[in-house]
């Protein structure tokens, strides 16, 4: 079996197991990792060897950029102290504690620091998926997502500095400071420059496919540019992505935004799924390659690392929550988070994509040999990922329910209210628009008045749905009946040649966009 067949098997696993994971209530990464482990047991399945120097540039840019396209800068600024505490303070503390533990268990200091940097950053994918499904408080979701965006920069900066110390044979304090400054400042500046250039290009392009191509190329371009000057590619991607998130929408056409949103959702889904499937395969390789596994040393290190990561996260998160609570009480404002929210945030520390990618990307030394203890470091890192995904990933949702942290509100109600408010704003703008005929104005106003009446009726119906839940379900079914009739009419017209395919697809775009709201 060749690598193409292996890729096909991984894709098949994603297609089949993703809906199964949702039905079972199990995080998708857990199911795909188990699938990769089972694949590795099949004798005909190959064990591909990916060159270490191409893993990070291929995997990290799209995943990091995709995370910036969720959330808002306003929420990040509001919760910046909590986000920075976790993304910088907790990540550095986790790396330090793991380094001490690993050194006490026999790894050299430089190698132990590399291991600490590899396993320090949690993966927000599974945690935020559960958070949104269970309607955790918005602030807690923002903090977890913000941590997931910025802890990678902290961990990867530590990772790269530690790698230099190992592969180049040592590094001085002055050089460490210079490299940190270059990593941070250079990465941010390159990312902002790339974001500004991309927005300039988007404002002059009016084709959805071309616009999406620009956004796809941007994270790879800024990552490679930063890497070329030894700056932080992670910070470059984050800076570019956050800039476009805040400033790029007005420069993009509506169709370009819709296409880009769909493409980035898929890229995030596909890359993450493939990497977790590959994790199971690579764990088997690491087990076979670890020369010290017979004594149980590697698994002992992994168990100690998992325990230390859980303990340090609980300590830092609860301490930070207590400090924030005291400050809020002194100001007379609402306490931002209690012990229940802090406990949930403490347990949402599953490791994932970045840990896998950085472990597999361990390079060769300057002498051309393998990275010292490479097999053992990879094995420990992959075991940490699997252990935290299974242990914390499977128990996070029950913990949330047990602590009663989920908020009672309904996110769908916010959507309905916002649509009504947006329609009212459109009506006010049309009524004040000048330089048009009365007939044109009334035509446009008529469309928005009908939409406002529709949105208001929906808000009233769903707000009263507790008294008549059957009516709410009936409205959804009726909408789908109407959409099915529209779709059949358009497809029949396209099939018989009554209209051109382009015209039919244009109408279908609107029909399917409305249908997707009720799926």
UniProtKB/TrEMBL annotation:
<dbReference type="InterPro" id="IPR018422">
    <property type="entry name" value="Cation/H_exchanger_CPA1"/>
</dbReference>
<dbReference type="InterPro" id="IPR006153">
    <property type="entry name" value="Cation/H_exchanger_TM"/>
</dbReference>
<feature type="domain" description="Cation/H+ exchanger transmembrane">
    <location>
        <begin position="15"/>
        <end position="401"/>
    </location>
</feature>
<feature type="transmembrane region" description="Helical">
    <location>
        <begin position="220"/>
        <end position="243"/>
    </location>
</feature>
<keyword id="KW-0739">Sodium transport</keyword>
<keyword id="KW-1003">Cell membrane</keyword>
<feature type="transmembrane region" description="Helical">
    <location>
        <begin position="301"/>
        <end position="323"/>
    </location>
</feature>
<feature type="transmembrane region" description="Helical">
    <location>
        <begin position="344"/>
        <end position="365"/>
    </location>
</feature>
<keyword id="KW-0406">Ion transport</keyword>
<keyword id="KW-1133">Transmembrane helix</keyword>
<keyword id="KW-0813">Transport</keyword>
<feature type="transmembrane region" description="Helical">
    <location>
        <begin position="263"/>
        <end position="281"/>
    </location>
</feature>
<keyword id="KW-0812">Transmembrane</keyword>
<protein>
    <submittedName>
        <fullName>Cation:proton antiporter</fullName>
    </submittedName>
</protein>
<keyword id="KW-0915">Sodium</keyword>
<feature type="transmembrane region" description="Helical">
    <location>
        <begin position="47"/>
        <end position="68"/>
    </location>
</feature>
<feature type="transmembrane region" description="Helical">
    <location>
        <begin position="180"/>
        <end position="200"/>
    </location>
</feature>
<feature type="transmembrane region" description="Helical">
    <location>
        <begin position="377"/>
        <end position="400"/>
    </location>
</feature>
<dbReference type="Pfam" id="PF00999">
    <property type="entry name" value="Na_H_Exchanger"/>
</dbReference>
<keyword id="KW-0472">Membrane</keyword>
<feature type="transmembrane region" description="Helical">
    <location>
        <begin position="80"/>
        <end position="105"/>
    </location>
</feature>
<feature type="transmembrane region" description="Helical">
    <location>
        <begin position="153"/>
        <end position="173"/>
    </location>
</feature>
């Amino acid at each position: 079996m060749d690598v193409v067949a292996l890729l096909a098997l991984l894709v098949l696993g994603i297609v089949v197991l993703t809906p199964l994971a949702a039905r079972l209530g199990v995080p998708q990464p857990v199911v795909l990792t188990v699938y990769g482990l089972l694949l590795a047991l099949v004798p005909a399945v190959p064990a591909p060897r990916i060159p270490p120097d191409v893993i990070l540039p291929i995997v990290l840019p799209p995943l990091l950029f995709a995370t910036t396209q969720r959330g808002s800068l306003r929420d990040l600024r509001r919760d910046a102290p909590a986000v920075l505490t976790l993304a910088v303070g907790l990540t550095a503390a986790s790396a330090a504690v793991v380094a001490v533990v690993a050194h006490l268990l026999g790894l050299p200091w430089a190698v132990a620091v590399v291991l600490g940097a590899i396993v320090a950053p949690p993966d927000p994918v599974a945690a935020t998926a559960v958070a949104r499904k269970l309607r955790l408080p918005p602030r807690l979701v923002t903090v977890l997502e913000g941590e997931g965006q910025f802890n990678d920069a902290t961990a990867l900066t530590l990772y790269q500095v530690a790698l230099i110390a190992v592969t180049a044979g040592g590094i001085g304090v002055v050089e460490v400071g210079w490299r940190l400054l270059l990593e941070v400042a250079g990465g941010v500046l390159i990312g902002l420059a790339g974001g500004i250039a991309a927005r300039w290009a988007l404002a002059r392009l009016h084709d959805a496919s071309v616009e999406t191509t620009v956004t796809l190329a941007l994270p790879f371009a800024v990552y490679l540019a930063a890497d070329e000057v030894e700056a932080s590619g992670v910070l470059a991607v984050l800076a570019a992505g956050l800039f476009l998130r805040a400033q790029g929408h007005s420069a993009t056409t509506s169709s370009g935004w819709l296409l880009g949103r769909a493409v980035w959702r898929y890229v995030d889904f596909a890359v993450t799924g493939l990497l977790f499937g590959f994790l199971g395969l690579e764990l088997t390789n690491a087990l076979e390659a670890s020369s010290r596994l017979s004594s149980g040393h590697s698994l002992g290190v992994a168990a100690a690392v998992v325990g230390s990561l859980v303990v340090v996260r609980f300590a830092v998160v609860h301490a930070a929550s207590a400090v924030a609570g005291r400050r809020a009480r002194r100001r007379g404002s609402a306490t931002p988070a209690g012990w229940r929210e802090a406990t949930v945030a403490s347990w949402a520390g599953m490791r994932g994509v970045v840990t896998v990618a950085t472990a597999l990307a361990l390079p060769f030394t300057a002498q051309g040999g393998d990275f010292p203890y490479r097999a053992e470091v990879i094995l420990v890192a992959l075991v940490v990922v699997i252990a935290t995904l299974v242990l914390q990933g499977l128990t996070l949702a029950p913990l949330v329910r047990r602590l009663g942290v989920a908020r009672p509100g309904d996110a769908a109600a916010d959507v309905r209210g916002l649509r009504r408010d947006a329609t009212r704003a459109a009506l006010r703008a049309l009524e004040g628009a000048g330089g048009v005929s009365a007939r044109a104005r009334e035509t446009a106003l008529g469309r928005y008045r009908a939409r406002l009446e529709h949105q208001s009726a929906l808000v009233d119906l769903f707000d009263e749905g507790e008294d008549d839940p059957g009516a709410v379900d009936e409205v959804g079914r009726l909408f789908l009946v109407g959409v099915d009739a529209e779709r059949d009419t358009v497809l029949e017209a396209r099939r018989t040649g009554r209209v051109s395919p382009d015209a039919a697809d244009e109408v279908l775009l609107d029909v399917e966009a409305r249908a997707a709201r009720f799926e």
